[in-house]
Specification:
This is RagB/SusD family nutrient uptake outer membrane protein. The chain is mainly alpha-helical. Helix content is 44%, strand content 6%. The protein has a domain of 223 residues: Serine Threonine Protein Phosphatase 5, Tetratricopeptide repeat (Alpha Horseshoe), CATH 1.25.40.390.
Length: 504
């Protein structure tokens, strides 16, 4: 499938003018879907193009996911020689001209533009209703996926759910309240759950299914504190896991071996990269291995995204997931060297992406990784959290979901250990919710999830300024920093996007 995606990027580029990128351009003429789409295959090609942009340097290859990691309390800046834009995101002193934001904002809208074009094309192309609904459902899932990231990052944003035929009209768009954006996201996911198939051809996990849509419905509802709906959707996925081919992988390490990534049963939705391939506009350029790798080690890296020592020291050494997640030593000039002697940043580094990048260059760039945007372990923990909120306390079912995740963690590369132990009954609601959030922090470490948990639970003051902070950040301001600023260039071109987010 990946080859098809990257051959499709050229078609997706015809849709760029419908996004919010490059608003200073003044293209001549109008776009019309009838000039772009003549068959169902053309519609599918546009959707594949959208996937190609998600798997780009600007989004899941570096810029966007790096911003998510640095924003949380699990990842700090290692080499302080890295560009200031990354330090600003990490240190909560960014402004509205931050280069990372200017990089990834327009790319999300390019993804949205491509799928809006696909939906418009599906309406005019001659095909069966079943084929049309399936294609539109896939496009609407991708749109919901994109807006879900955008609304959590920026709050009120332009919400475009139609194909823009006049690029000049983009300059008159205004922001849509976040609540209305969420309504659109939920509507798209409900449609996707109804019309997507149970499995995709060849069981690829980089295209959505009914189970994918339900999993994201659970996560959106959890974010909105609609706990009953979150539980209902997560429970539906769990009850139908055989129908969708979902389960926990036996070995946690296998989740981060690029050569094993295709069709992994734990992956509910994955962003695929194709080893040693790249295209225009940063397409298929995955840099997370070098960004997290060790500068000066034989396995080359840049020491940019490096956890603080507190993140490493407070993680129990008995937990197999710690060894999978960290590189506490590495070969340097052929000699295995502890982190205390690393040349640049004397801290354990993230190993999830650098250790097994598959077919890649010497730095691990252009990897074969399939990044799990959603995996089955997260659905188990979502069900546990939501059910506990619904019942005002944990029951055996909620505890059982956490224990499934912990049971897998005890399989240390085929050797079964006794840690982490099963959760026992008797915890209060607050204590169990804290436990679930901590389990998410460990289980989903460095997978671009932690910031969203901090944000939705409003834990910023606790995790950045509290006595047990893993990464103290004195600049964190709860009245400002749960959202990022809209790019200044967008506001300059279109003042209707104002006002700027508070504090910027």
């Amino acid at each position: 499938m990946k080859n098809k995606i990257y051959k499709s990027i050229a078609v997706a580029m015809t849709c760029f003018f419908a996004g919010c990128a490059d608003l200073e351009e003044r293209p001549v003429g109008l776009l019309a879907p009838e000039s772009l789409f003549n068959s169902a295959n053309d519609v599918q090609t546009a959707i594949f193009g959208a996937y190609g942009w998600i798997a780009s340097e600007r989004l899941y290859g570096r810029q966007f996911v790096t911003a998510l990691m640095l924003r949380g309390d699990m990842v700090d800046i290692g080499d302080r020689g890295t560009p200031a834009e990354r330090q600003q995101v990490n240190d909560f002193n960014m402004d509205d001209n931050n280069g990372m934001i200017r990089s990834f904002w327009p790319y999300w809208y390019q993804v949205i533009s491509a799928v809006n074009a696909a939906i418009a094309g599906a309406d005019i192309v001659d095909m069966s209703d079943a084929d049309r609904n399936r294609l539109v459902a896939e496009a609407r899932f991708v749109r919901a996926f994109s807006y879900f990231h955008l609304v959590r990052t920026f709050g009120d944003i332009p919400y475009i759910d139609y194909f823009i035929t006049d690029p000049e009209s983009v300059k008159e768009l205004s922001k849509t309240p976040a609540a209305q954006v969420y309504e659109g996201i939920l509507a798209d996911l409900v449609f996707a759950k109804e019309w997507l198939p149970d499995t995709q051809p060849s069981d690829v996990r980089s295209r959505p299914t009914k189970g994918t849509a339900a999993s994201y419905l659970a996560t959106v509802h959890l974010t909105l504190e609609n706990y009953q709906q979150a539980y209902n959707e997560a429970k539906w996925v769990i009850d139908n896991k055989s129908r969708f081919g979902y389960d926990l992988e036996a070995d946690y390490q296998d989740l981060f071996r690029a050569e094993l990534a295709n069709n992994m049963r734990e992956h509910i939705f994955a962003v695929e990269f194709l080893g040693q391939q790249n295209g225009g506009g940063g397409a298929n350029d995955d840099l997370m291995a070098p960004m997290t790798g060790i500068r000066g080690a034989d396995e080359l890296g840049w020491s940019v995204c490096v956890p603080s020592m507190a993140v490493y020291n407070t993680w129990d050494d008995r937990d197999y997931r710690k060894g999978v997640s960290f590189a506490a030593e590495a070969p340097v000039n052929g000699v295995m060297t502890p982190y205390s002697q690393f040349d640049n940043t004397q801290r354990p580094h993230i190993a999830k992406y650098r250790r097994y990048p598959g077919n890649s260059n010497a730095e691990g760039r252009y990897s074969d990784h399939n990044y799990a945007a959603m995996r089955y372990a997260e659905i188990l923990l979502t069900a546990a959290e939501a059910l506990t909120e619904v019942n005002n306390g944990p029951n055996a079912e909620a505890i059982g979901y956490v224990n499934e995740v912990r049971e897998r963690a005890r399989n240390a590369g085929g050797q079964v250990s006794t840690f982490p132990e099963d959760v026992q009954s008797g915890l209060s609601k607050d204590a169990f919710i804290d436990l679930v959030l901590e389990e998410r922090r460990i289980e989903l470490s460095f997978e671009f999830k932690r910031w969203y948990d901090i944000q939705r639970r409003r834990m910023g003051d606790q995790v950045f300024k509290g006595p047990n902070s893993l990464e103290p950040q004195a600049n964190f301001d709860a009245s400002r920093d749960y959202l990022m600023p809209l790019p200044r260039i967008e506001l300059d071109v279109n003042p209707n996007l104002g006002p700027q987010n508070p504090g910027y």
